[in-house]
Specification:
This protein is α+β, with helices and mostly antiparallel strands. The protein has one domain: Alpha-Beta Plaits. Helix content is 41%, strand content 28%. The protein is elongated and about 60 Å long.
């Protein structure tokens, strides 16, 4: 199963102005995160202290990751990168020897 690190940032263009509305949006998004953690697709979800972003560690195929990202659009912007284990790197490097 593929692993991904997904950096996220709040899309400020879609954030409410009042504190009450901000908290309501944050709590709604938090419930979605908790659901994804429970499902097992999301392994870790972080929020950087003092910033409006964080990162996610997720496992699945491309479709799983697209659904995860889509659950938060337009409120969150994503930068997603596939992760390789040391064993996968070693296998790739050895294959370059011929």
């Amino acid at each position: 199963m593929a692993r991904y690190i997904m950096f996220w940032d709040y899309n400020q263009d879609h954030c409410p102005v009042t504190m009450q509305d901000k908290v309501k949006q944050w709590l709604t998004l938090t419930e979605e995160v908790k659901r994804m953690l429970k499902s097992g697709v999301v392994k870790d979800w972080t929020h950087y202290v003092g910033e409006s972003g964080g990162y996610v560690i997720a496992e699945g195929d491309e479709t799983d990751i697209l659904k995860l990202e889509g659950s938060f659009i337009p409120y969150v912007k994503w930068t997603t990168k596939a992760l390789l284990t040391v064993e996968q790197c070693e296998q790739a490097w050895r294959s370059m020897l011929g």
